[in-house]
Specification:
Elements: E1 2-6, H1 14-29, E2 32-36, H2 42-48, E3 56-58, H3 67-76, H4 85-99, E4 109-112, E5 118-119, E6 125-127, H5 130-141, E7 145-148, H6 152-166
Parallel strand pairs: 1-2, 1-4, 2-3, 4-7
Antiparallel strand pairs: 5-6
């Protein structure tokens, strides 16, 4: 089975949320498993598109995490020592969404909406705001492509990826 991460801002615009739900419905039809966090906005938009419980893994803030989840989160957060325990738990949960319960089962790719993306010279997104930015940093350090649909280039590449999935047997 293939997995993908559906993440993003709680402030994701409603029109974008509708597209996220459609993407999740499409991926469900092709037996892809959603990993997400259950937060309002992008997370719930993705979850709404997956009706089969066996095709979604929702990591709530109470999810049991390992020390390795926290270590990876700490390594990618610029001010980890200044965070309160609950916020650290949320960031560690994002690691589980991207890398799995064992930190060795990464998603194939991620889809997000997050404002203020920052790119390197090769147009690879390195960061964006908030917890989604943290997730993107973790993803890229583990060679996971995240499509930020606020960016037209990423949206185009995501559509190409979905077309490939459409014509691939899973």
């Amino acid at each position: 089975m293939y997995t993908y991460a559906g993440i993003g801002s709680r402030k994701t615009p409603l029109a974008v949320q509708k597209e996220m739900t459609k993407a999740a419905e499409f991926l469900q039809r092709h037996n892809w498993i959603l990993r997400s966090g259950g937060a309002q906005g992008a997370d719930t938009a993705f979850e709404k598109g997956v009706s089969a419980d066996w095709l979604k893994q929702i990591y709530r803030p109470t999810h049991v995490l390992t020390p390795q989840h926290y270590e990876i989160a700490a390594a990618h957060h610029p001010v980890w020592g200044q965070l309160v325990p609950y916020v650290k738990q949320l960031h560690a949960r994002n690691v589980a969404i991207l890398l799995g319960d064992d930190c060795k089962s990464p998603v194939s790719f991620g889809i997000c909406w997050a404002p203020n993306p920052i790119y390197d010279t090769k147009h690879i997104q390195k960061s964006c705001a908030g917890g989604t930015g943290q997730g993107v940093r973790v993803a890229y350090s583990h060679n996971i492509r995240v499509y930020n649909v606020i960016d037209p280039h990423d949206t185009y590449e995501l559509k190409e990826r979905l077309q490939q999935i459409k014509y691939t047997k899973t």
